[in-house]
């Protein structure tokens, strides 16, 4: 039953993408350009060669990490719109840790740097959870404020205390030992894709095969009923935001470990601003089954194709932007399943 429901939701999402593409084509026609040429440019820019495909998959990795983070919060009924700030905090914490402990052996340094990014995301996420649990403040408002704080604080660090010598706003180059290894030469596809698959599998097991995950989902389904059943609702509100923040911090750690060759953190700040809001088109797809995790990863791939097409398509950027503006929201049009 649940499997067929998940497949049905996937079908709705694919149909939504199709409708969005048709609407995009109409707008392209109105602008006086060819939809076929525009869609061709989109596909060529993102999937036109093995190298392009590998780089597109690479682009989907941080989207999927952060999408899983937002989805985990939603399982407890919390809207973690603060994932962007948690991502920035995780990226900066991982960079500073790798620079401060560069004397450590490579594998240990990578593990410590990733852990630092995860912990930084947890700390930021816990603030939202505690404010909601103790003061009943809107997690949306608190999270949005924290997004600005984390983003601007990270930018200040890069332009000030941790700025490398020179005119460019960037940190020192992190040790090469913390970079994820390339899977395909001359591409950005790294071994982080395996980490993503492991995290997705662990998240599924946690939510569906453990008592803690069951209680978290129960709170998200009906907090009043969960409280009546003896589940500490306020505790799980905080726990869900801590875990969600940790996953977003892990996404930030990924950027430290190769996505931009481990340098130019200021570029990371600029490049990531606004990405997470697109992920709310994906997080509603993380349903209560393994199919939901697959949908989330599929949606991240679709978004990566659109983002890469915007960045790497010449001469048709306006049309490709038009396509993206309809297709990404179109992916979110089907409703989230019930608990």
Overview of this protein structure:
The structure is a single chain. The protein has 339 residues and is an all-alpha fold. It has helices at 2-30, 35-47, 50-75, 83-100, 106-135, 139-159, 192-209, 211-221, 223-228, 233-259, 265-272, 275-283, 290-312, 317-330. Helix 2 crosses helix 3 (50-75). The protein is globular. The two termini are 13 Å apart. The relative contact order is 0.22.
Helical content, roughly? over 70%
Number of strands: 0
**Element order, helices and strands?**
HHHHHHHHHHHHHH
The whole-number mean of residue pLDDT values reads 75
Structural topology:
Blueprint: H1 2-30, H2 35-47, H3 50-75, H4 83-100, H5 106-135, H6 139-159, H7 192-209, H8 211-221, H9 223-228, H10 233-259, H11 265-272, H12 275-283, H13 290-312, H14 317-330
Question: Gist?
Answer:
This protein has helices spanning 2-30, 35-47, 50-75, 83-100, 106-135, 139-159, 192-209, 211-221, 223-228, 233-259, 265-272, 275-283, 290-312, 317-330. With 339 residues, the chain is mainly α.
Keywords:
disordered C terminus
């Amino acid at each position: 039953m649940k499997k067929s429901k998940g497949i049905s939701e996937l079908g709705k999402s694919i149909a939504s993408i199709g409708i969005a593409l048709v609407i995009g084509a109409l707008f392209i026609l109105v602008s006086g350009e060819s939809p076929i040429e525009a869609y061709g440019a989109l596909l060529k820019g993102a999937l036109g060669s093995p190298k392009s495909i590998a780089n597109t998959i690479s682009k989907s990795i941080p989207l999927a990490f952060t999408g899983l983070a937002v989805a985990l919060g939603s399982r407890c009924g919390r809207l973690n719109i603060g994932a962007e700030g948690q991502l920035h905090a995780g990226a900066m914490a991982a960079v500073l840790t790798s620079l401060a402990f560069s004397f450590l052996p490579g594998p240990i340094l990578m593990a410590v740097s990733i852990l630092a990014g995860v912990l930084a995301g947890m700390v930021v996420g816990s603030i939202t959870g505690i404010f909601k649990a103790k003061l009943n403040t809107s997690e949306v408002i608190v999270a949005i404020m924290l997004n600005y704080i984390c983003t601007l604080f990270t930018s200040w660090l890069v332009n000030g205390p941790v700025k490398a010598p020179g005119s460019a706003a960037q940190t020192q180059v992190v040790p090469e030992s913390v970079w994820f290894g390339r899977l395909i030469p001359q591409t950005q596809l790294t071994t982080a894709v395996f980490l993503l698959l492991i995290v997705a599998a662990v998240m599924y097991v946690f939510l569906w095969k453990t008592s803690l995950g069951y209680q978290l989902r129960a709170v998200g389904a009906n907090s009043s009923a969960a409280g009546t059943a003896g589940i500490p609702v306020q505790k799980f509100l905080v726990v869900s935001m801590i875990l969600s923040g940790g996953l977003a911090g892990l996404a930030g750690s990924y950027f430290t470990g190769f996505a931009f060759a481990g340098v130019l953190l200021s570029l990371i700040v600029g490049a990531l601003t606004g990405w997470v809001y697109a992920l709310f088109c994906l997080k509603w797809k993380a349903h209560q089954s393994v199919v939901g995790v697959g949908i989330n990863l599929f949606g991240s791939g679709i978004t990566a194709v659109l983002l890469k097409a915007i960045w790497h398509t010449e001469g048709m950027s306006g049309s490709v932007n038009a396509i993206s503006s309809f297709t990404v929201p179109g992916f979110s049009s089907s409703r989230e399943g019930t608990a």
